[in-house]
Amino acid sequence: MTDASVTTATTSPHHASVVAKEATHFGRLARDWWDPAGSSAMLHRLNPVRLRYLRAAVDRHWDLDDRSFAPLAGKSALDMGCGAGLLAEPLARLGAAVTAVDAAAESIAVARDHAARRGLTIDYRAGGVEAVAGESFDLVASLEVVEHVADARAFVAGLAATVAPGGLLVMSTPNRTWLSRAALVEAAEALGQIPRGTHDWDKFLTPDELGAMIADAGLRVTDVTGLTLGTKGFALGTSTALDYFVTATR
To answer: What is the DSSP string of 56-121?
Structure first.
């Protein structure tokens, strides 16, 4: 059995991309992050769809066999804004050497313990995108994160800088529409499906806005796919009105 590793102290360093209020908010939720009926229940419902999109993007980009159990073997992956590891652990199981960063040190502590108990080696770090400055990764994923940072443009530029030549960037975020305001802020938070204070609608980005930031950072957007929510749960689709995924390459 291998051990998970952590490269920081228990407190998050000061990084310009980190909003202290956001880190505190998510840090309070860390303890029951892995409880599918807890405060992160919505993420547990969303995670299979996120993994489906990411796996398809990886297979398409590197022309891999979609039946392979370890398509990321020999590749490095960064999970930026990893929370307690809901995405980082599957990336490790897909064969990647995973580095995972989150602004909430409490989440990193939970992630480290959870991975260790499952024999997964993941380089967990507390902080912002600055924690991986100067490093590069074959796959960079940052899902439902850009809407929580101090400066979205600077954050995207920092992410893009970590994408290795020939590498892949995958992001997701809510769109700034009347639907996202009604569904994610006014309804989901009011009904307790998402913890209150999780979202600031004014910080949501449209696909055009995020795409322009990615292009300005030197990457090329290759796909935009919508995330929809219906009676059967989350699904991929053509509508980006609620939330969406973006894939880009260097």
So the answer is: HHHHHHHT--TT-S-TTTT-EEEEET-TTTTTHHHHHHTT-EEEEEES-HHHHHHHHHHHHHTT--
Q: Say how far residue 176 (Cα) sits from the centre of its chain.
A: 18
d(CA 163, CA 246): 14
Cα gap 41→32, rounded to integer Å? 10
Is-contact 114 87, C-beta < 8 A? Answer: no
**Per residue in 135-163, pLDDT tens?**
999 999 999 999 999 999 999 999 999 99
Chain-centroid distance of CA 215 in Å reads 19
Q: What is the pLDDT of residue 235?
A: 96
Strand partners, 77: 98, 139
Given a contact cutoff of 8 angstroms between Cβ atoms, the answer to whether 151 and 36 are in contact is: no
Structure-token pair, residue 115: 């991975």
Q: Output the six-digit token pair for 55.
A: 């796996």
3-state SS assignment for residue 231: coil
Tokens coding 95: 């064969």
CB count, 10 Å around CB of 239?
14
**Tens digits of residue pLDDT in 67-84:** 999 999 999 999 999 999
> Which of 66, 71, 62, 140 has the alpha carbon at shortest distance from 100?
140
Token digits of residue 162: 């970590």
What's the rounded Cα separation, in Å, for the pair 108 and 113? 9
